[in-house]
Amino acid sequence: MELTQLKYFQAMAKCHHFTQAAEEMAISQSALSRSIQKLEQELGVALFERHGRTSELTEAGQKFLFHVDRVIRELALAEQEIQIDNGGEGVVHLSFLHSLGDTFLPLILRQFHARYPHIDVKLYQQNSSLLSEQLANGETDICLCSTMNEPDTAWMYLWSEEMFLVVPEDHPLAQKSRVNLREVEDEPFVALKPEYTLRQQVNHFLDLAESHPQIVFEGDEVHTLVSFVAAHLGVSILPHVPGTEHLGVVFMPISFPLCKRAVGIAWNTIRPLSPAAMTFQQFTIHHFVQDGEVPMNQPAKNPSSKQHS
After folding, report:
1. Distance between CA atoms of 299 and 297, rounded to whole angstroms?
2. CA distance 56 to 51
3. pLDDT digit string, tens, across residues 235-245
4. How confident is the model at residue 251 (pLDDT cuts 50, 70, 90)?
5. Do 220 and 193 meet the contact criterion of CB atoms below 8 Å apart?
6. What is this structure's pTM?
7. Residues 214-235, buried b or exposed e (16+ Cβ, 10 A)?
8. Contact by Cβ (8 Å): 306, 178
9. Long-range CB contacts (< 8 A, 24+ apart) of 37-46?
10. Which one-letter DSSP state was computed for residue 10?
11. How far is the first Cα of the chain from the last one, in angstroms, to the nearest whole number?
12. How far apart are CA 235 and CA 230, in angstroms?
């Protein structure tokens, strides 16, 4: 059994017509007919029911076609992967949560581009609901997000990201080493809009602490929230946002409840990943799972804070 025979069979199964299949494969009709007959002899079953120049797959032919399609697809993917590893080109459509743009993404993209300089990564920054829609509709290949439990979607854990209470540096809580979220009960609070997974997780943390601060602003960007905290408009709960301490804010560790969120990589299980997307997927998983590396999201210690609780 040869690969050429399988491709001839696949073409015939699609066209249902010897003349059309022969033209598509650029061979004579008699050569195509001999190839199909030889394949049927090797398998010991009839693959087609012939009606003159047309044909229909038998039940055995339909089962065989399912596996032939997989074999040919996998071989094509393997060939493209090898080409990519040898400097070939490709495109990855990558969607990610707003809050990951300052930690994970710059790190992994820099290392990925150094390893695969000819793969172009198209970036889409979205909220959680749009991420799942893009993945389901085939508008993106890979998502970097919190836990995703959508149909036909695979999600793999990569790392846990600590969450902090963000307060102005002259806020009374900034003088503590750790804070209990019950202590923000009477504080004005700024947060992401309700459709963001991060906001939903913050709501969960506050519920666990039985703390219900007054929401005074709901936004789309974590940088906006940090700026509003710096302007004394409220406090917030966020992962560490690098480069914002100069605004006059402090990222306070939380003693209760445990405030962490899982971050992972998601892809659609119905649509096969392109070789470029599969390369990015495997590179990312290897980077975090095997090497055990996580992005740095720990804030620098506030030298003015006193170490008491």
Report:
1. 6
2. 8
3. 999 999 888 88
4. very high
5. yes
6. 0.65
7. eeebebeebbebbbbbbeebbb
8. no
9. 38/5, 39/1, 39/5, 39/6, 39/8, 39/9, 42/1
10. H
11. 74
12. 9
